[in-house]
Amino acid sequence: MKILVAPDSFKGSLTALEVAENIKKGILAYNSEQDVDLLPLADGGEGTVQALVDATEGKIITEQVTGPAGNQVKAEFGILGDNKTAVIEMAAASGLPLLAKSDQNPLWTTTYGTGELISAALTHQVEKIIIGIGGSATNDAGAGMAQALGAKLLDKKGEEIGFGGGNLNQLAEIDLSSLDPALAEVEILVACDVDNPLFGKQGAAYVYGPQKGADQAAVKILDQNLRHFNRLVKKQFGKDLNKIAGAGAAGGLGAGLVAFLGAELKPGIDIVFEQIDFESRLQEIDLIFTGEGQLDGQSIHGKTPVGVARQAKLHKIPVIAIAGTVAEDAAAVLEVGITAYFSIINQPAQFEEIKQYTPALIESLAAQIMRTINIRNEFKLN
């Protein structure tokens, strides 16, 4: 029997590679001669850079960039093993965790640092840039990102507009003539797992603005400004961004990447699978272990374990999911290819307590699962 271990990270606890290594330890604790392949994964959200770098034997690069509040922060991106592909998480430069609660205000926060990361990636002569756009602190439709790459976003006086979604209403002209010419030679794929439009009640401001620090009044301003931005883009470039599923992701960064850089929005797990040629990794595999920090009903919407299971189902490969926690509605994943799922938690405990024991809990559970799988053979059951 050949086993593939292909989990996502346990966010806030272990990277995808660390999860995979501990599952493997448990498998080998039961059978030291078991054939096990490791394939750390991600779905385009947090951990995507590390997972793809680990899976392709690439490298991590650290840059000093502009944070969401305009201060300087250190942010990482990856160059994959082919040396032709860069992978960026916008949250590394423009994410909500970079801000103190008192500094969270999407009227002023900017994606400028994300643009600086893209610029840094271009210096490595890459042919493709993958951008994960979850976890943003911003609502500026990627305006700051575009400015960092050379675009001129001008008001009626011909002056650059200021940072933040609160200034988009000042935008009168978009001048892309000074955009970094290297962008024309690069394919840009955006890992986007939401389908929110740019504006409206299901748009960027109303759905995500409050969690970024926007009160009711600010949400209305941000939504109006995104409408203004869309009208201008439609007038200048003939693109109605609000018709693009996912345009509202990351405070409209999804829309901005399409408008300014001609990017393509795709489900994150699909991008990851294409990059590592996941289909070929399933050849001669008899069993798959996957996992994530929390398995629930939302996991069916583009999350790693279900993405793995859907592909495995086509090859009639059983899939075991290991999770930190399992929600009441997790049974939905059984309908899309996961054969069985298990939680590592063996007694009531707080997250910080469980966190320090997570590696050992994963290892122990994997060993017990292998014992269960082999009951039929060991006891010659019919």
Automatic annotation (TrEMBL):
Keywords: Kinase, Transferase. This is Glycerate kinase. The keyword Kinase applies. SUPFAM superfamilies: Glycerate kinase I. Belongs to the glycerate kinase type-1 family. It comes from Halanaerobium salsuginis. GO terms for molecular function: glycerate kinase activity. One of its GO terms (biological process) is organic acid phosphorylation.
